[in-house]
Amino acid sequence: MGKHHQNLLNGLEEKRKLAGFTQQELSESAEVSRKSINAIENGIYVPSTVLALKIAKTLNCSVEDLFTLP
Fold it and tell me: Residue 16: which CATH number?
């Protein structure tokens, strides 16, 4: 289920902006490239569990607040 999962609902960009983070700031905190954050926000890449947890921790929310299945 790595890439291009059409059923995954992705709220990362909205949560990131509400928390006041740039893609670069979030990427540094999650220890990935800015391009990775961009790819996740655009639905090109589905993050690993570890990465999703790092992002959620940085944004002070749950993984389910960022990614859900319909």
Answer: 1.10.260.40
